[in-house]
Design goal:
elongated; mainly alpha; 10 helices
Amino acid sequence: MKRARPYDRDTALAAAEMLFWTKGYHATSLKDLEMALRMKPGSIYAAFSSKQALFCLALDRYFERMSDEFRKEIAQAETPLQALSGHLRKLGKRPTDDPQHRACMLVKTVLDATPEETAIAEHARNYLDQFRLEFARVFERAKALGELPEDADCARLAHRYQTNVMAIKNEMHRGTDQSAIAALAEDMAADLDNLDPRRSAA
């Protein structure tokens, strides 16, 4: 009997992530997965048990990758608030041929999930909540350093920030001109910069 070709799990998950991110859960067929992962159907099910399980693993990988990228940006910035505004500016300047120039995979999953797919939707919602908490923690650090007023509501700022990030990514996905996206991101970043009470006192 011919043995199945060995596969690299991380490479397979990377391919699945990009495929699901591009096409969505429903539009991705088993044939699409077979071609992207370069695996036979039987091997896919043996390795990942089901399409839904593979999709959730792809969501895990997406969240972990995006979280790592964001945390690196935060760590490299001079201050927390500058890190947050810099992240928006970086998003706005992303070239149109960048593979990440599309809507957030988590948001797309929540919007596309059917009533029978509550597990998938909850998986994505949980990660969106975790991102918002991550943003809130950065705002809290900015507040502690005096970059925000003492009465700043960091949870509310984090909610608005996440909404802005999603808006930029949605504009990318719909094909808005890159210069217009960059201008939008600059406006959002400038609003953040202006939260610093020391700017008005200078």
